[in-house]
Every structure is written in structure tokens, then in C-alpha cells.
Amino acid sequence: EQVQVVVVGGGPGGYAAAFHAADLGKDVALIEQDTRLGGTCLLRGCIPSKAMITAAEMYQKLLHADKMGISFKEAHFDMKKMAAWRDGVIKDLSTGLDGLAKGRQIRRFNGRGYLKGPKELAVASEGSSLSLQFEQAILALGSKPIMPPPFVRSERVMSSDEALALDFLPPSVLVVGGGYIGIELGSCFAALGSQVTVVEAFARLLPGT
């Protein structure tokens, strides 16, 4: 297929670039391996993190409302319902992005993009492949969490991706890394009642901030 602009990556860098190019009158194709738009930020990072923090802060406010003269029966939460609400927020925002892409007549391709030359991109998905001939390409490939040795992913050892998809509250959490992601996750779990320990290599939390 022929296209003027091909964008690889459907995260906030990719979809914003695709929308802008389409608004300028370009014929745009958007390649994303996830069936949903939004990338790490919306699907596995910033948005689920902020949703869970918002819920945890609300829970803490209810626990201490009696200080303001507001009293009611003891506050409690249902982690599965909270997780379902978080996932609903993600779904609504991702669906909205999909509608914005359709409204701009951006062609969506589900799969991984591979550059085959200066003007050709292959899109591979579940055993099938197609080729796109393009004039300009925008690569917005996003990020993924690292798992340094000797750590190995398991039910007990997880990255931020898995931690933000939990539907139960761990009684204790060890956060390796005191950057903003670790502190956000640690603060959220602590506010909900987990015993949280943070390990950071530098002498302070949020190094570089």
C-alpha cells in the first residue's frame, strides 16, 4: 500500500504526531502492536498509576474525615472493584483515541513495524505481513521496563506493568528503585495498607529531581 506518512507507535508521541499530520492534510498510517491506542503511558503507566493514586487518596481522606467533623461507618475498599474502575478509565480513554483516529481517516495497522528500506515498512502480525510504501516515517517506539539480573519475572517479582494491573493488595511490597515510578507505586500501595520498603542506590529518593 502507498501512504504519505507512516507512524510506528500508538503512544502519546505516535498518536499525537499522526493526528497532527492528518490535520495538515497528509495521508497517514499508524502502526501499533497493541489493539488499543495509548501506549505505555495510557495502558500500563501514567494513567493507571494516577487512577490508583486517586483512589488511594480518596480512601485516606475517608479514613481521616472525622477530623473535619464528618463521621460514618468505617471506610473499606474492594480491590477488585477498584481495579475494574481503573481498567474502565483506560478503556474509555483508549476508545476515545480510536474515535479521534477514525475521524481523521487515519489507517490503523495492528502489528510490529520493520523498516525494509528508506521508503518501505513491513507490518507483521500473527503470521501475516504487508508492505507499506511511504514518503515520510515517524518512529515513536515507546519504552518498556527493564528487569535487571538477578531478578526474574514471576508472580512475586514484577515490573511496574504487572504491579499496575493487580486486582489484589499485597500485604508487603519491596520497591527496587526510588525514582518517580517506584515512589508513585510505593505511595499508592502504602496508602491502601501494604507495608512498603523502598531500596534506592543513591543517597536520596527521586535522584535528579
Entry keywords:
single chain, 209 residues, alpha/beta, 6-stranded mixed sheet, 6 helices, elongated
Task: Draw up the topology in text.
Blueprint: E1 2-8, H1 12-23, E2 28-32, H2 39-43, H3 46-63, H4 79-103, E3 107-110, E4 112-117, E5 120-125, E6 128-139, H5 160-163, E7 172-176, H6 180-192, E8 195-199
Parallel strand pairs: 1-2, 1-6, 2-3, 7-8
Antiparallel strand pairs: 4-5, 5-6
What would you say this structure looks like, in words?
This protein has 209 residues and is of the alpha/beta class. Helices cover 37% and strands 24% of the residues. The protein contains 6 helices and 8 strands. It has helices spanning 12-23, 39-43, 46-63, 79-103, 160-163, 180-192, and strands at 2-8, 28-32, 107-110, 112-117, 120-125, 128-139, 172-176, 195-199. Strand 5 and strand 6 (128-139) form a beta hairpin. The chain is elongated, with a radius of gyration of 21 Å.
**Count of individual helical segments:** 6
**Helix/strand order:** EHEHHHEEEEHEHE
Helix/strand/pairing category:
alpha/beta
Helix content: 25-40%
C-alpha termini separation:
46 Å
Largest sheet strand order: 3-2-1-6-5-4
Low-confidence runs: none
Strand content: 15-25%
Q: Outline, from the CA principal axes?
A: elongated
Round the mean pLDDT to the nearest integer and report it.
Answer: 94
Q: Major β-sheet, in short?
A: 6 strands, mixed
Strand elements, count? 8
Quaternary structure classification: single chain
- Rounded to an integer in angstroms, the radius of gyration calculated over CA atoms is 21 Å
